[in-house]
Write the structure tokens for this entry.
Amino acid sequence: MNVLLSGIVGSTAYGLAHAGSDLDRLGLFAAPTEEFHGLHRPAESHVTTAPDRTLHEAAKWCRLALGGNPTASELVWLPEELYEVRSPLGEELIAIRTSFLSTRAVRNSYLGYATQQFRKLTTRDPSDVAGRARAAKHARHLIRLVRQGVTLHETGHLEIRLPDPDAVRAEAERLADHAESALPLLADAEQRFARPGVLPEAPDEAPAEAWLRRVRAAHLVAAA
């Protein structure tokens, strides 16, 4: 498989990993161009659990990133030491990462995913002891998504590693038992997203289109 870019994501990247955390990997690959000419299109994603790794085909990754998908987008914003594969085409993609950003997509995606985490907190059964750990995880995701989204909206930079992971963990533990305490956090994020940020209204698709054409030209046929 022609992996162009791959790295360690998730809790390890955010600085929130603990002893029992999984090591999650995310990457993108180029399917041979000739495979797009037949009756059946090549698989757009490959997901494994041992190890935990998700690989998206180049075009699918671009569509996800243009739509503001938080998980896909972080691949091109990782700290240097977390990359495991960085091909020349992968480097080119990192260089055009800001062209995928847009105000509406970032707001809808980050705030939307954070709100989903809030709903999971509010629907938890307090008597479910095992669910308490899941609730804390949902709370951590909520806090992270709000912070990342607002920072991206206001600065144009996606902050992957949290500067204060211990404080985030402590706050998440509180929210796990008092879900309503997350409402001011979400309300503040909505207000900040409502103010003008630095991102354009729509993403610039031209760099992604040109990059994909270079990918297709470089991978015309399957490797022997």
In short: The mean pLDDT is 93. Strands lie at 2-9, 24-30, 45-49, 52-57, 83-86.
